[in-house]
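User: Is it possible to get a 3D structure for a protein together with its bound compound? The compound here is magnesium ion. I've pasted both below.
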Amino acid sequence: MDVIWLENSKVIQWFPGHMAKAKREIIESLNKVDIVFELYDARIPFSSKNPMVDEIVKNKPRLVLLNKSSIADKKTTKLWIDYYKNKGILALDIDSINGYNINKIVDYSKIALKETYEKREKKGIKSKQIKALIIGIPNVGKSTLINKLAKRKATNVGDKPGVTKAQSWIKVSDDLFLLDTPGVLWPKFEDQMVGLRLAICGSIKDDILDKIDISLGAIELIKARYPEMLKERYKLDNLESNEEILNNIAKNRGCLLKGGEPDLLRCATLLLNDIRNIRIGAMSYEEPNWFKFI
Ligand SMILES: Nc1nc2c(ncn2[C@@H]2O[C@H](COP(=O)(O)OP(=O)(O)OP(=O)(O)O)[C@@H](O)[C@H]2O)c(=O)[nH]1
Ligand SMILES: [Mg+2]
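Assistant: Yes, that's possible. Here is the predicted structure of the complex:
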């Protein structure tokens, strides 16, 4: 697929000092936990995997959780789950709002912790306590998952990236303790399509984004994967260039300046809000067979 968006787009990057600090603190906390829950956005499992994670987590037992599965494309999520299975990676698709598969997390953790338990038993320790650290990009739903597991508002959540500012331990039960951490990105997106997908899914602070640019990229992705949903939502007869589509959405939605010209910034804001609030529909933006290795 030719990616027109890349030719004209601005470089996306967001790795402020507090994220570098959060990364250091995660490394320091690793020896206090038994397992790491790696939380990915089910719509973008490749782009939401921090490339530094393997180097950070090393040999700790891990469980991959594809969160927000209710707003991803079910068929695509299944492809991802099969992909992880084939790779021998323990992975579960979950939704921290509606609770889908949340009750399987402890059982999956126990599978990941089999060796740890065996070692403990040899030392005569019977405890099956689980201490888990939750790691993931900003806004992926780490704190929401903790609250769902704990069945109470144990930690702050919000619909923007950067809500959790510091680590905190949350006791879910006598057997399960979770360490919430601030979302962490990485210093440079090698592929700007990764930056685009992260921006669309709300993991990059909006203030640093060019919304028109991002919405043109979003149109390109949706046009390729879900053309009928795009036409249906904005009453478009044809899908032409990204710019023409944005202009037509502006006209059909009444995003116009005083002179009748399309108000592209207002339209881009509307489009991004629609995508993030799932008004176009449940969509996924990447498939495992696009990537050589993960
Ligand atoms: N639909 C859906 N929305 C979710 C899910 N999990 C989280 N959200 C929403 O995603 C947004 C971010 O959730 P948080 O739990 O604050 O995300 P976080 O990973 O803790 O973010 P930071 O603290 O900024 O790193 C909120 O608006 C949540 O309601 C999910 O499984 N499904
Ligand atoms: Mg949080």
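The mean pLDDT is 96. The chain is about 40% helix and 10% strand.
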